[in-house]
Amino acid sequence: MTLQKGDAVILDDITLSLERARFLAIIGPNGAGKSSLVKILLGIDHPTQGSVAVLGSPPGHHAKRAAYVPQLKTFDRSFPATAIQLVVSGERQAWPARTTAREREQALEALTEVGAEHLADRPLARLSGGELQRTYLARALVRKPELVVLDEPATGVDFMAEHDLNHLLEAYQDKTQATVVMVTHDLAAARHHATDVLVLNRTVVGFGEPERALSDECLRRAYGHVGHAHSGFVAW
Amino acid sequence: MVVTLFEALDYAFFQRALLGGLLTAVATGMLGVFVVQRGLAYLGNGLAHASFGGLALGALIASLTSAQGILREPLWIALPFTLAVAAAIAYVRDRTRLSSDTAIGVFFAVSVALGILFLSLIPPDDNVIDVWHLLFGSILAVGPRELVFIAVMAAMTVAVLTATWGRLAYATFDEELAQSDGVRVRRLEYGLFLLAAVVVVVSAQVVGIILLAAYLIIPAASARLLSTSLLQMTVLAVVFGVATTVIGLFTSYLADVPSGAAIVLLQAALFAVAALISRRP
Ligand SMILES: Nc1ncnc2c1ncn2[C@@H]1O[C@H](COP(=O)(O)OP(=O)(O)OP(=O)(O)O)[C@@H](O)[C@H]1O
Ligand SMILES: [Mg+2]
Questions:
Q1: Residue B166: its chain A contacts at CB < 8 A?
Q2: CA–CA separation, A33 and A223 (whole Å)
Q3: Residues with beta carbon inside 6 Å of ligand 1?
Q4: Which of A122, A169, A193, B275 is 20 to 30 A from B199, alpha carbon to alpha carbon?
Q5: B127: distance to nearest CA of chain A, Å?
Q6: Which ligand 1 atom sits closest to the C-alpha of A6?
Q7: What is the ipTM of this complex?
Q8: Interchain pair B169, A82: CB under 8 A
Q9: Which fold has domain A1-62+146-236?
């Protein structure tokens, strides 16, 4: 599969497949095309060449079976809404005018799962970065997805929250046999939590079990020079 | 005073003004919520001025052809003209690196320039169009035909926005999230632009082109200050629009001041109150 925007080749000839119930970590430098790949998996963008199948169908075909936690929370902070309304939108696949008692109950359950039930009626404008991240996670889990796609969910979240996040995902996976695809800059998390790692830099640099994909060789090819300037980053 | 108010209601022209104003307030209030939340305040302004170009062209055609029937009604030229401008703005924004503000600014200026040119070509004694009314509104002069147009426009707005509300609100909140759930955000946005064009052209007769943007923005912005959900904001925007229209209209009748100005100033007062109430401690 290849993705072009104008003259720029964003993703070049990507070929790979992932079994269900796996935990895939996608790593790569800034601008490597990680978010672009994720958007294709979700049917937000479409490859210029080649084809993609997700859960056995074209991406976006069964939108409700997949859930998305986006990278940048680009929504307008002045949007009048409370956390629970955002969670219900994940269940309903539309913005709720009013929420039914049942929707509210399920949304509260999801918020409790991520330790954010106390935020339910808080306006979005008054949530911190980490609180917002949890709300988005609850929004994703509330629909009981078979595939969870997260784009750098740990950005702006403290260490404990990141730790919780990875455990939450693992717990959800144990319970439901769901597939998790997570873009991350955290190599330690990729090593410990993922069953598969994709090292991406416009094309596939490494793909497979964490030890193999995260070899020095692959990282050097993806990030260029590993050692001096980037050593702190890689040592994670 | 109460007697005078009831007296006003006896007049057919006042009844039409009231009904026309109410319908306009409902349509602009519902639409205004999306205009405000999507940061499209300038679009309302731009389309209003585009409708000026369209109405002027309509008047010119009516005058030159001394046409009867459909061409005698500038609205039928202004409507496609403004729709075309709305589509062009959306297209330029999508296909170039320009923001909608820039695209709107260009079409805004071109439309006004064309409008002035068209008006200058109309022989002075051929009064199909009253520029003063066009610019400043003439709610008390709304005729039975205009009232029909306004009613159709309002019904259409309520129907379209009710049918698409959940998806439109979702896309307004976050386009990508909505897209990941299968919402066709581009199509919805084009639809919203076209709907805005229709609302703007038709309600220009009530409040006038210059004050139209106020109708689209101030009730929704006041409602935004007091709401914790988009539904609440929508309901409040409509209520504010309706209330200020009714009060403004009676005020203008009693005090003999221009109705459009009275209504918009009331809306501004309401906005100030909302801003004070919602002020952060
Ligand atoms: N709509 C677009 N048009 C043109 N180029 C784009 C577009 N979207 C992204 N790009 C380019 O595609 C490349 C990959 O972007 P992408 O957002 O997928 O990177 P990323 O790996 O997610 O980076 P980061 O780690 O910073 O999030 C970048 O060079 C970016 O400039
Ligand atoms: Mg990214």
A1: 92, 94-97
A2: 13
A3: A 5, 8, 10, 28, 30-36, 71
A4: B275
A5: 46
A6: 4
A7: 0.89
A8: no
A9: Rossmann fold (3.40.50)
Residues of A in contact with B177 (CB under 8 A): 68, 70, 75, 89
Per-residue pLDDT of A202-223, as tens digits, reads 999 999 999 888 888 888 888 8
Spacing of C-alpha A200 from chain mean position: 15
Tell me the average pLDDT across B181-210: 92
pLDDT (tens digit per residue) in B127-178: 666 777 778 777 888 889 889 999 999 999 999 999 999 999 999 999 999 9
- CB of B32 closer than 8 Å to CB of B237: yes
For residue A19, give Cα distances in angstroms to A24, A54, A59, A155, A183.
10, 10, 16, 27, 17
Ligand nearest to the CA of A10: 1
A76 touches chain B (CB under 8 A): yes
DSSP state of A64: G
Count how many residues are written for chain A. 236
| CATH topology (fold) of B2-277 | ABC transporter involved in vitamin B12 uptake, BtuC (1.10.3470)
Q: Do A82 and B228 touch (CB under 8 A)?
A: yes
Cα separation, B84 vs B55, in Å, equals 13
pLDDT band with cut points at 50, 70 and 90 for residue A235: very low
Per-domain residue ranges of chain B: 2-277
- Is the separation of the CB atoms in B77 and B46 below 8 Å? no
Domain range summary for chain A, segments of one domain joined by +: 1-62+146-236, 76-143
B31 CA to middle of ligand 2, Å? Answer: 34
Interface probe, candidates A74, A79, A95, chain B, greatest B C-beta count within 10 A:
A95
Q: What is the pLDDT of residues A5-27, one digit of tens each?
A: 988 999 999 999 999 999 999 99
Would the CB atoms of B182 and A76 count as touching at under 8 Å? no
Q: How far apart are CA A204 and CA A206, in angstroms?
A: 6
**pLDDT at residue B209, as a whole number:** 87
Angle (deg, nearest 10), helices B2-10 and B230-255: 100
Residue A95 has its nearest CB partner, among B166, B224, B227, at B166
Contact yes or no for A159/A183 (Cβ under 8 A): no
* CA angle, residues A63, A69, A75, in degrees to nearest 5: 100
